[in-house]
Amino acid sequence: MGRYSEMSGFYDVIMTSGYYDYPKIVDGLINGHPVANVLELGCGTGLIIEELAKRRPQTAITGVDLTPEMLAIAQDRLSPFANVKLFQQNVCELDLHAQHDLVFSYGGVWYFVVQKGHEPFMVSHIADHEDNLKGLEKLAACIAPGGRLMLGTQGPHFNYERPISNGMVYSQVIEPTEIGFTKHYFLDDGARRVMSQTIHYRTYTFAQACDMLKPWGIEFDGLAHHHDEGGMFMGFSKS
Ligand SMILES: C[S@@+](CC[C@H](N)C(=O)[O-])C[C@H]1O[C@@H](n2cnc3c(N)ncnc32)[C@H](O)[C@@H]1O
Question: Per residue in 124-151, pLDDT tens?
Fold first, then answer.
């Protein structure tokens, strides 16, 4: 179910060594628009929320994540921000009793892989199909009528290894599976392997993803930004 327990202690150093560009993610997310209340699904260690909270101190921001170790780091990081609330929850059983004008996920529970010349496809951290349906229903219930859903985009995944800022070497290995792919994440300190984590991802075609969101009044609104053109999110509106 996409737990990041093994990776949590190294997550920030890997991500801030060039894996994600957090200021650019937040530029793509708010894009100059006013937002009163925002929910991030799969907020991890809170790196996006921190950037957002600094820029928008008046916006009520909620973060949800499944992995307690990730959320503990987010709690520490975000304790200076009175406008941020965090909850440890699985999106498949999401229970917030609140609606938001913007719900988003970046590299979190659901995201899109976008590559020029190819149909985008959706990647889910949730391997079971029924759980995906439950999660998307819960997600929809958290969006106010007229509100938006933004799901992050990433370029195609591939195997590589590269040094990170603390001198360790990060590597990833991707294996196709019947339901999508499996990704192995590793961190090595010289000859010593300090982190090893495997996540089983399920993938959906763009049409399947739209069909799963449609019953809840959520439709792709054409505001897609191609990842390789610098866009960071696919946008959906809720009627
Ligand atoms: C790659 S991290 C992204 C974190 C953050 N959005 C960022 O950009 O740094 C994915 C996060 O999704 C969370 N996640 C995966 N499945 C989840 C689920 N079913 N419910 C809630 N969170 C989930 C994981 O615990 C992990 O922290």
Answer: 999 999 999 999 999 999 999 999 999 9
- Of 123, 124, 142, whose CA–CA distance to 63 is shortest? 142
Q: What is the pTM of this model?
A: 0.95
- Per the DSSP assignment, residues forming a β-bridge with 188 are 169, 193
How far, in Å, CA of 53 to CA of 48, rounded? 9
> 8-153+203-238 is classed in which CATH architecture?
3-Layer(aba) Sandwich (3.40)
Residue 56, Cα to own-chain centre: how many angstroms?
20
Give the mutation target among 67, 153, 195 for probing the ligand 1 site: most ligand atoms within 8 A of CB.
67
Write the pLDDT tens digit of every residue in 46-96: 999 999 999 999 999 999 999 999 999 999 999 999 999 999 999 999 999
- Domain borders along the chain are 8-153+203-238
